[in-house]
Please model this.
Amino acid sequence: METVEEKNINDFETLETISVDCVIFGYDDNKLKALVRRETVPYNGEIHLEWKLPGNHVRRDETIDATASRILKEQTGLENIYVKQFMVFSNPNRLRLREQDFVWVKPRLRDERVITVGFYSLINVSDVDNSMLIEDAKWENAYEIKELMFDHNEIYDEAFKKLRYDLLHEPLVFELLPEKFTLTQMQKLYEAIFNTTYDKRNFRRKVNKMPYLIPLDEIQSGVSHKPARLYSYDRDIYEKTRTERFDFRM
Model:
């Protein structure tokens, strides 16, 4: 059976030495997660189940950004979601770091050197129709990512570092939250990403200074505790007030 990558390479003319790999972060059940996909790798007479990041080669008629958007749609069924390029990975031996990986990928290559462009994306897992995920994909706890194929652990680690940096300087946290959320949900998300705990009073003092964080005349429903007020993010207000440097360091 063809993989998604094989099908695309066969159906479209691609740039065989340039690919895109995506770290797709999601947030669900108070946990930060990342999407990984399984590959069946025969090696030394045995079948190994290995994991890698979603990726694909760049089509000749595509921009790099368009390739990233295509990969995200193929993997999750979602369009128009946040995606950002963060680094180019050009180690000449990046596909040879483990022999079994190179043996598996070599028949699929016309050139044994492939430069890849790393992107990360942010989505609310509740927005994903799991039936749209490719069969061999799963959400993994972001802190439990094990050994990945090729240099994908390096790509993942660099994406995580870039995400943390960007969250201190841009309000990207709202890409991971539902349309309506509580301040507790927002705090738990920041804590999950930075693997820390914030003082509740200091956290709320910080976020209450955000003019684009809009309190709603609605409260939570269906909860066993006292329902909390719901909030939303107003992107237009952020764009109008973004002359001030965003700084979420606490």
In short: The chain has two domains: 4-169, 174-241. The beta strands are 14-28, 31-43, 46-52, 55-59, 82-89, 115-124, 137-141, 213-219, 229-233. Residues 152-169 form the longest helix (18 residues). The first strand starts at residue 14 and ends at 28.
